[in-house]
Specification:
single chain, 503 residues, alpha/beta, Aldehyde Dehydrogenase, Chain A, domain 1, Aldehyde Dehydrogenase, Chain A, domain 2, 2 domains, five-stranded parallel β-sheet, 23 strands
Length: 503
């Protein structure tokens, strides 16, 4: 079947999946779909229109025990962990190819489950997920170990080995993409993985497990456990036979996972957490129109449910009014619409809880004295879905709640500054340090500002750049470790020193 080209075609495909019960909704353990041991299930509700898509298996401690046992047995058997890198590479590339071959189904599941526009689910999320798997697979037989400089009668070898069993807890905003940022290097290095998707958007992870088996990944090497964080997520974090825990999500949960790791077996913990990223526009920005387009996209794309969202727009006083007017015009291109319409750029917020949270922050912004200059309303209420207008606040002070706390919705705080020093001071005045943008024609100012910002990623004269070759991660309470690039492989390997006496 060819890719649907309009809303009606996508809706027909969705109706077929839902009414015929073709959506996979069980846990995936030892290469097979199975219900949770308790038999408990939860409703998977689409934020598009409030429709129940299916009932998903709700896993807990006992399911985690079985999945960990399966993953450990697969690892210890060597069926994957001892496979040559070149053979693992071939299977990983096949996995990526199959993700692309199933792009329409996966994109549709992502949109139905999470509410993002279909135009991005396939072209950004699924394609990016496949690229991550393929890139990691292609890299694995090109990473060399080391030989230490030694005396003539000794040999010092530094080698990397897979850590063992990895538990990956991923968020609801980019479900398949964030999963594959973990799965790529974790699987390529020979580990067994237990993937715990968010209960808000589990469907692509569940379907992807079957695709992995089709690609040739052995049974038990990849298990998927849907369920809630306080049940199965906690069970994995506390499990004594999980060697490494990787997580993308909120800073609050990241802190709790560190506690669980310390209370159990001191498992390695790698965390990509929250952000409140400053997007800094100086008076000498080379192209204000381009800066306005980027600022609008940086807060409205994916309904603002992005950890790197440019949610704090720092504007030098001389260009504030002009830039703010340009951004308001650009927001017209980000009006919420039906996510299955290929023309829609801004879809539904993931669920009612998140919608209520975003609306609460808008009310707080108004109460604290920020000036609401665009949006701020819930819209499309007749649809039964969860939609909110992209919102702009001006005259924001960095001490205000909307400037300090991660909203995870399309709410932009515009803060005025005078000079580079004040911009850097405001930019760094946050518990987070994930990303930042800098707009200037002065190369020295660009370098000085980028160097001074305590952020893991800084983009100059654009926003949200990079590809698989560059690391992704932050400073401070935005977490530790890095996704993407060869640096990601560090999280999934142990370094062993072997010293050999030749006499």
């Amino acid at each position: 079947m060819s890719t649907p080209t309009n809303r009606e075609q996508w809706q027909n495909l969705a109706d077929t999946l839902i009414t015929q019960g073709e959506i996979k909704a069980d846990a995936f353990i030892e290469g097979e779909y199975q219900a949770s041991l308790s038999g408990e299930r939860f409703d998977c509700v689409s934020p598009i229109d409030g429709r129940v898509l299916c009932q998903v298996a709700s896993c807990d401690l006992e399911d985690a025990n079985i999945a960990v046992k399966s993953a450990r047995a697969a690892f210890d058997s060597g069926v994957w962990s001892e496979l040559s890198p070149v053979k693992r590479k071939g299977i990983m590339i096949r996995f990526a190819d199959l993700l692309e071959a199933n792009k329409d189904e996966l994109a549709l599941l992502e949109t139905l489950d999470m509410g993002k526009p279909i135009r991005y689910s396939g072209a950004v999320d699924v394609v990016g997920a496949a690229r991550s798997i393929r890139w990691s697979g292609e890299a694995i037989d090109k990473i060399y170990d080391e030989i230490a400089p030694t005396a003539h009668n000794e040999i010092g070898m530094i080698t990397r080995e897979p850590v063992g069993v990895v538990a990956a807890i991923v968020p609801w905003n980019f479900p398949i993409l964030m999963a594959c940022w973990k799965l790529g290097p974790a699987l390529a290095t020979g580990n067994s993985v237990i993937l715990k998707p968010s209960e808000k958007s589990p469907l692509t992870a569940i379907r992807m497990a079957q695709i992995a088996i089709e690609a040739g990944i052995p049974k038990g090497v990849l298990n998927v456990l849907p369920g809630f964080g306080h049940t199965v997520g906690k069970a994995l974090a506390l499990h004594m036979d999980v060697d490494t825990l990787v997580f993308t999500g909120s800073t609050k949960i990241a802190k709790q996972l560190m506690i669980y790791a310390g209370e159990s077996n001191m498992k390695r913990v790698w965390l990509e957490a929250g952000g409140k990223s400053p997007n800094i526009v100086f008076n000498d920005a080379p192209d204000l129109q381009k800066a306005a387009e980027a600022a609008a996209a940086a807060i409205a794309f994916n309904q603002g449910e992005v950890c790197t969202a440019g949610s704090r727009l720092l504007v030098e006083a001389g260009v504030k009014d002009e830039l703010l007017g340009l951004i308001a015009k650009e927001m017209q291109a980000w009006k919420p619409g039906h996510p299955l319409d290929p023309a829609t750029t801004c879809g539904a917020v993931v669920d009612k809880q998140q919608l209520d949270n975003v609306l609460k922050y808008i009310r707080v912004g108004i109460a604290e004295g920020a000036e609401l200059v665009h949006g701020g309303n819930q819209v499309l209420t007749e649809s039964g879905g969860m939609y909110v207008e992209p919102t702009i606040f001006s005259n924001v002070e960095n001490k205000m709640t909307i400037a300090k706390e991660e909203i995870f919705g399309p709410v932009l705080s515009v803060i005025t500054f005078d000079g580079m020093d004040e911009a850097i001071s405001i930019g760094n005045d946050s518990i987070y340090g994930l990303a930042a943008g800098v707009w200037t024609s002065n190369i020295s100012k660009a370098h000085k500002t980028a160097k001074a910002l305590r952020s893991g990623m800084v983009w100059i004269n654009h926003y949200d750049g990079g590809d698989m070759t560059a690391p992704f991660g932050g400073y401070k309470q935005s977490g530790n470790g890095r996704d993407k690039s060869l640096h990601a492989f560090d999280k999934y390997t142990e370094i062993k020193a072997t010293w050999i006496a030749l006499d």
